[in-house]
Write a structure and sequence with these properties.
The complex is a heterodimer.
Chain A (H helix, E strand, L loop, with lengths): L1 H36 L5 E6 L9 H13 L2 E6 L2 H13 L6 E5 H9 L6 H4 L8 H4 L3 E2 L2 E2 L2 E2 L5 E6 H7 L9 H13 L3 E4 L6 H13 L10 H15 L12 H9 L3 E7 L3 H6 L4 E4 L16 E4 L9 H11 L2 H11 L6 H10 L4 H9 L11 H18 L4 H12 L1
Parallel strand pairs in A: 1-2, 1-3, 8-9
Antiparallel strand pairs in A: 3-11, 4-5, 6-11, 7-9, 7-10
Helix pairs in contact in A: 2-13, 7-8, 9-10, 9-17, 14-15, 17-18
Chain B lengths: L1 H21 L1 H8 L4 H32 L5 H6 L8 H8 L3 H30 L6 H8 L1 H4 L2 H11 L6 H8 L14 H26 L3 H9 L4 H12 L1 H16 L3 H6 L11 H10 L6 H31 L1
Classes of the chains: A alpha/beta, B mainly alpha.
Chain lengths: ~425, ~325
């Protein structure tokens, strides 16, 4: 009896302590956020999705230089690109947003919807020189939420030796039919056809889009006959052994590793692999992704936007704008895009890039023809559509559903 | 069935009488002088309570709150999400992913537990023989436990890759066609189960081995004198005496396995076509796997997992109490 009394008293004590602690945390979370801000008005935080760049890298040095020019100290953090969106939302919720945020372009509309980003009207950023098709990814509801730091897109890399051995003339590859015929020849010659990434994430949608758009399909109608034809193209490649089954689990990096073995004729991959292509040790070429019946398909634009998140102290925008302008203008933009292996978002710098490296010419053309995923005012509808799209691709390629069924289910789920 | 209803019928009365008697004591104790030992007791209690509240109670409360509100990205940031009651739970239950995820979670947990326990026990009995090199070999078995999960999961996913995987190469060598371990809807769950069993065996081995150490050798000698063979000695001596250790091993294993996320996410991302999605990966996928996070439903799925683990924990406590009484 006595012991049970004591137990109860302890429980009562525990409950009081808990109540105190909970209210204490509620207070401390507020004071915590103001603490970080008071690190000093002279320190500006920058978040970027380039964790691969260490403190000694050109990128980090550029940030410091821009900071010095604006008369402030820079505190930079590099995040994994897939984490950055949710990290930013959490930070915004805590009132802890960075001063400058560099973020993948399809995330911009989501963050804008959440009210995390300032518009160019508020932060006085000049976006007049930027190519309209690239800027569109950062626009929604008639407002612009940042400026692209650089752009990349997808094209087909091909291995010259493999094609030669199979007797394929690359000039003959003009549409899907001729591409599939080339793959058949490559397979007959004992080599492997094409590799891409059809993984169940945004990357999978990104890689599927050139074929989807190349068939003439629209993101608002996932179940159109054009969409089915694009998915059937991939499905048939897998069925006939022109593409490996591993594409279902391939990221763009692992897909590139497959191509780098030298066994594959084609690889759908991005501008950012150019540096690796030179190291691959075989002769390669780059071909824009063909449309279903010829011409070049629109590929989706990749690359990040420089944005200024909303701050309590609106006086900080002036300096943030200086930092942003420093990062995205003139020589700095050229250097950054060279470091990142990106195509510049302004024609002025693009010309400079092509002049310095003629290899970039097909990529600059591809970027000019490319289309933002969240463009056409899709905005935050895109993530939902994209998720259903990659699911449909996975279902069809793994054989659990036919392309028609998979896409019609996707369309009804995406509505 | 009958048993559980009886238990449920019994519990409320206990709780009610508990609440009824719990209320008066503070009033009574206020009259009494609080002794210094009591203050000391409270002081000793404070750090743990604060810690528990900060790092356990508050996150749990937040997760519950998340699951009961309709969060969009906007209301998540502005903090004005409307309270929607159980709408998120209804949404989750009605989702076409729910049934497969439930089935996969159950199969994944049950199969992993059975194999981890059986293999762990077999190895523990084997290493209990104290032969030469047994310590070294036992240490080797701990490797999966020591490796960071991201390393082991990446290694498994590389080994099981359809194109360049060593497993398919080995199968090819013995004349079996390639299996799409990670990319076929009929194999992906099996693949992650195999990897998870491999990771879980060392834990079972270590705990069961230490359990074996506490069984006195004299019992085995007595059994041997009575003419019990090795098989009978295992089933009549080892297994019953190991029951308390087995129970806690299985319970811990269950909690660990229910929430396994890294291995599945790294190996298959729950795919292809949801064929290896469990509640853990689904919850993550809802909350973070998309450009447009659905925090509410994600938290709801997470809470279902917490409840499942809690139920099994309570079952364990009850079983133990019964054992203690008998």
């Amino acid at each position: 009896m006595n012991s049970s009394f004591r137990q109860r008293r302890l429980t009562a004590a525990a409950v009081t302590a808990l109540a105190v602690a909970v209210s204490a945390t509620a207070c401390s979370s507020d004071s915590g956020s103001s603490d970080t801000k008071s690190v000093g008005n002279g320190t500006y935080t920058i978040w970027d999705p380039y964790p691969q760049f260490a403190k000694s890298s050109d990128w980090a040095k550029l940030l410091d230089q821009c900071g010095a020019k604006a008369g402030v100290k820079i505190k930079r953090t590099g995040f994994d690109t897939s984490d950055l969106g949710s990290k930013t939302l959490l930070a915004a919720q805590q009132g802890n947003s960075p001063d400058v945020l560099i973020v993948d372009n399809p995330v911009v509309s989501t963050l804008a919807e959440a009210g995390v980003l300032t518009t160019t009207d508020e932060n006085k950023l000049d976006t007049s020189k930027v190519d309209a098709n690239l800027l569109a990814a950062g626009q929604s509801g008639g407002k612009t939420y940042g400026t692209p730091i650089g752009a990349n897109t997808l094209a087909l890399y091909y291995n010259k030796a493999v094609l030669k051995k199979a007797g394929v003339d690359i000039a003959s590859v003009k549409d899907w039919k001729s591409l599939t015929a080339a793959l058949a020849k490559v397979k007959a010659a004992g080599k492997k056809g094409i590799t891409f990434s059809a993984i169940g994430t945004e990357e999978g949608s990104f890689q599927f889009l050139p074929w989807f758009w190349g068939a003439g399909a629209k993101l608002t109608a996932l179940d159109s006959s054009q969409a089915v034809s694009a998915l059937s193209l991939w499905k048939d490649w897998l069925k006939n052994g022109y593409a490996p089954n591993s594409v279902l689990n391939n990221t763009q990096t692992t897909s590139w590793q497959e191509f780098a073995t030298g066994d594959y004729a084609f690889s759908e991959n991005g501008t950012w692999q150019l540096a690796n292509a030179k190291k691959a040790g075989f002769e390669y070429g780059v071909l824009p992704i063909p449309g279903a019946t010829g011409g070049n398909a629109s590929a989706p634009t990749g690359g990040e936007f420089v944005t200024v998140p909303v701050q309590k102290d609106t006086g900080r925008y002036t300096t943030s704008q200086k930092l942003e302008t420093c990062l995205t203008s003139g020589d700095n933009l050229y250097n950054t895009d060279t470091t990142l292996s990106y195509v510049a978002p302004t024609s002025e710098v693009q010309d400079k890039q092509v002049a310095a490296n003629a290899e970039l010419k097909p990529w600059v053309d591809a970027v000019k023809a490319a289309k933002g995923r969240t463009s056409d005012d899709l905005g935050t509808r895109y993530p939902k559509i994209s998720e259903q799209m990659w699911k449909a691709v996975q279902s069809a390629l793994s054989g659990s559903k036919s392309p028609t069924d998979a896409l019609s289910e996707a369309q009804s789920a995406a509505k | 069935m009958n048993h559980t209803t009886k238990l449920q019928a019994h519990r409320p009365t206990v709780a009610r009488s508990g609440a009824a008697t719990a209320a008066p004591p503070p009033a009574r104790s206020a009259k009494r002088r609080i002794t210094s030992t009591q203050w000391a007791a409270w002081a000793f209690l404070a750090p743990v309570t604060v810690y528990l509240a900060l790092f356990y109670a508050y996150p749990l409360y937040r997760n519950l709150d998340l699951s009961l509100r309709d969060y969009t990205v906007r209301s998540f940031v502005q903090g004005d999400a409307p309270f929607t009651g159980l709408a998120n739970y209804r949404k989750v239950f009605a989702d076409p992913t729910f049934a497969p995820a439930l089935l996969h979670t159950a199969v994944f947990t049950a199969v992993c537990l059975v194999f981890q326990y059986a293999i762990g026990l077999a190895l523990a009995v084997f290493f209990n023989q104290h032969f030469r090199l047994s310590a070294t070999l036992r240490a080797l078995f701990l490797v999966p436990w020591l490796l960071p999960l991201i390393v082991s999961a990446s290694t498994w996913s590389w080994m099981l890759s359809s194109e360049s995987g060593v497993v398919n190469a080995a199968l090819h060598a013995v004349g079996i066609g390639p299996v799409n371990w990670l990319t076929s809807p009929s194999w992906s769950l099996t693949s992650v189960i195999i990897a998870n069993i491999w990771i879980g065996v060392p834990f079972n081995l270590v705990v069961l081995y230490s359990g074996l150490q506490s069984i006195p050798a004299s019992l085995y000698e007595a059994a041997a004198i009575d003419g019990a063979n090795a098989w009978q000695r295992f089933w009549r001596v080892t297994f019953p005496l190991l029951r308390p250790v087995s129970a806690i091993t299985l319970l811990l294993g269950l909690v660990y396995t229910l929430k396994v996320f890294d291995i599945i996410w790294i190996m298959t991302k729950g795919g292809p076509a949801d064929s290896s999605t469990t509640f853990a990966t689904w919850s993550y996928h809802l909350g973070f796997g998309n450009l447009l996070p659905a925090f509410g439903p994600g938290a709801a799925v997470g809470n279902l997992l917490v409840v499942a683990a809690l139920v099994f924990g309570l079952v364990y406590v009850r079983v133990q109490r019964k054992q203690g009484l008998s």
